[in-house]
Amino acid sequence: MQSDLVQLVTGIAQRARAASLVLSTATTEAKNDALLRLADLIDSSHPGLLAANQLDLDQAAANHLTGAQIDRLTLDAGRLRRLADSVREVAALPDPVGAVLEEWARPNGLYIRKVRVPIGVIGVIYEARPNVTVDCAILCLKAGNAAILRGGKEIFHTNTELAGLIRRAIAESALGALPVLDAVQLIPTTDRAALTALLKLDSLIHCIIPRGGEGLIRFVAETSTIPVIKHFTGVCCMYLHKDADPGMAETLVVNAKVQRPGVCNAAEQLLVHSSAAESLLPRVASALASSGVELRCDAASSAILARAGIGHKPAVPADFKAEFLDLVLAVRVVESLESAIAAINRDGSAHTDAIVTRDPAAAGRFQAGVDSAVVLWNASTRFNDGHEFGFGAEIGISTDRLHARGPMGLPELCSYKYLVSGSGQTRS
Amino acid sequence: MQSDLVQLVTGIAQRARAASLVLSTATTEAKNDALLRLADLIDSSHPGLLAANQLDLDQAAANHLTGAQIDRLTLDAGRLRRLADSVREVAALPDPVGAVLEEWARPNGLYIRKVRVPIGVIGVIYEARPNVTVDCAILCLKAGNAAILRGGKEIFHTNTELAGLIRRAIAESALGALPVLDAVQLIPTTDRAALTALLKLDSLIHCIIPRGGEGLIRFVAETSTIPVIKHFTGVCCMYLHKDADPGMAETLVVNAKVQRPGVCNAAEQLLVHSSAAESLLPRVASALASSGVELRCDAASSAILARAGIGHKPAVPADFKAEFLDLVLAVRVVESLESAIAAINRDGSAHTDAIVTRDPAAAGRFQAGVDSAVVLWNASTRFNDGHEFGFGAEIGISTDRLHARGPMGLPELCSYKYLVSGSGQTRS
Predict the structure, then answer these.
(1) What confidence score (pLDDT) does residue B121 get?
(2) Alpha-carbon distance values, B286 to A372, B308, B325 (Å)
(3) What percentage of chain B has pLDDT greater than the value 70?
(4) Which of B86-90, B209-213, B319-323 comes out lowest in average pLDDT?
(5) Nearest CA of chain A to the CA of B51: how many Å?
(6) Left (φ > 0), alpha (ψ -120 to 50) or beta: where does A133 sit?
């Protein structure tokens, strides 16, 4: 059984590798043709997709899914229309492949070009969101990569139906003639042993992107011998410097915490400079409280809010390293810009942090000193996002420092290679 | 004992992380000051270094080292002078940190800058070459990274002496005042359990670079939960297209195979187009044979060489996937450009491959279709090298596709982050 699974995933990976070698030089037109056909197929396949989705929903209770999880896996006509639209948006994006990133001549006459090429075969390991199936498939395809998708058992039927549409779109498109039918494959089992076997195929698969909860990501990172780009937790901080504009401070902290508290770039912690805490904190805290945010305060901020008569709770040490993903905010007072930077580097997750200040020098020191993927000055942490950066689409927000950091768009799904032209040069 | 080792390496990693946060904003002048002091210290410390090296040499027999291995670990006055020179060369290279890689404004007024920053903490795992200790330390330092070095037991005494000099150079330099004394640390034990523990510290160490034999690299890739940049084998191919200039073909193949056969960018395989094999192969083969190269031939090339009376051996299938690192070359005839590309993608190691042809279209198709880090046209495979690319120094040649591919210089030892400036923007 175990060896059958190894054979199964090895076959999938070998077909993906073969497809990737052809797909890597496919034209932009052929790739877009497949994408636009997929969008049309999604539009014309609502009945089949919704029926498959219903099979997954029927098992949601047996799978012990929460209400939020059931909501994420549920498809309806509106969500399917938005899914098809997102495919058309990716078709409209520029093709990242083939761009000359750098070129130069050497004194011996060699001419070197560094060109962007697909990575090759990318494995995406995720949980129960059907839009991830389509997003990852189309972004990998547009960037010339073959994709192997492994979703959770909670959306197995929906994924199988979607994967069938993707394969049909490729077959009927200009890509089908190449042929790259195996450019997008779904692992047809959710057996954990198949996943483990897949994560060891480092001679065939070049990159693994896990998307999901911390448990899944940790399992993948610990098991995989293939390079992994992780999308981990965001313990994001807003720091109010001593000269922060009070109105801007209030607006930005409320936006960073409240606008969508369940996502990785929502603020989880507020730090306030001690010399401004008395004036700033009551105003910001009262705005947060009226938005239903629970404040967990250190001794200094608690004393200020108590004097102002604003409700709050005492923080425990773990609150200052927590990703609440909820209407909860840890609050503390710091003695200096340097203490704020040190606290964020120690307790944050190097994801997204922001300073509110009128002082460009303080902003510059904060942006240089805070060791995070995105460091903002006078803006909400919620802007760490591929769409907000203008990337058009994102496959996720990398918390790694190698290859891609922060929002990952199409160029980040590519590697590069060097093309060297000579006239008979030898090395001595 | 086990837990003592975990504590030991955790302490080292924590100190490295603290040092890296300071080092990341150190000035170019301060970093160069440390490098130049190190070069002077190496120059003035020959007696101590040679005495430590002698202790390692005394144990070489007990460690079962081969003659080549003993040669690699042996220091003498000339090698020490070249080591000091290489440190001065890195000091003279431009600082990669702080470069603005891209910048753009968003319609909402946000201004985004993508700037190059150090990766953070880099662990280098290697075997028995003392110059790796210095090379990796100085390249990491120049790029603003803290380095944790773990060399093999065969050079433990030499490494300990070199690490002492590096620490002294930092302490006496402008960096010492920051303080970043722990910017370069040597793991003071070669116990394998300490290495295993180190490779699990993914919250403190951001990148692992293994340098050495395949066994070491495989162990590191399988054990590490930290991202690894691998420097694997090179099964490099030279392909002679049907219109290759005979003189150039001879010169390039001999250079690629013979000039330094024991390195990863030496050619291991020769492919010749069938319609030119009769005319090209005898000339090239006889030049190789006079350089002492053993030719392992497929049936078609063997028949041609037999007719020409040139000595050779029959190849076994494994020869066409082998990294000989010796004066041995696998030879085969292919029916077309496409067969050459397919054979190289199937049997090569995606490291370095070259075509010899007068036809720009054939060269273009070969460079696009061959899925390797460096693909050359009319030049020797030996040019896949940081110095030959003009990088000034290299930490190795990456065989991975993520982050860095091919020669890794100072910029490849960096990550990036996004600095976003606003005026109170919120997300809706």
Answers:
(1) 98
(2) 59, 9, 20
(3) 100
(4) B209-213
(5) 34
(6) alpha
**A 279-298 residues with CB below 8 A of B?**
none
Is the four-CA dihedral A333, A338, A344, A347 of positive or negative sign?
A: negative
Give the strand order in the sheet containing A207-211: A184-186, A146-150, A121-126, A207-211
Write the residue in B110, B227, B422 that is nearest to A227 by C-beta.
B227
Q: Has residue B1 got a pLDDT over 60?
A: no
DSSP, residue by residue, A346-361: HHS-SSEEEEE-S-HH
Place of tokens 């094999």: B277
Contacts of A188 (CB under 8 A, 6+ apart): A8, A160
Nearest residue, CB atoms, A372 vs list B221, B417, B421: B417
pLDDT at residue number A1: 55
- CA distance to B152, B214, B244, per residue, from B156 (Å): 7, 21, 50
- Alpha-carbon gap, residue A423 to B379, rounded angstroms: 7
- For the ranges A34-38, B250-254, B328-332, B397-401, the lowest mean pLDDT is seen at B397-401
Q: What is the spatial distance between Cα A108 and Cα A219, in angstroms, rounded to a whole number?
A: 49
Q: Are A170 and A57 in contact (CB under 8 A)?
A: no
ipTM: 0.94
Q: Is any Cβ of chain A less than 8 angstroms from the Cβ of B120?
A: yes
**Domains of chain B with bracketed CATH:** 2-232+408-420 (3.40.605.10), 236-383 (3.40.309.10)
Q: What are the tens digits of pLDDT across the range B283-301?
A: 999 999 999 999 999 999 9
Q: Which of B110, B377, B403 sits opposite A420 (nearest CB)?
A: B377
For residue B381, list chain A residues with Cβ-Cβ distance below 8 A.
Answer: none
Do A415 and B405 count as a contact with CB atoms less than 8 A apart?
A: yes
pTM for this predicted structure: 0.94
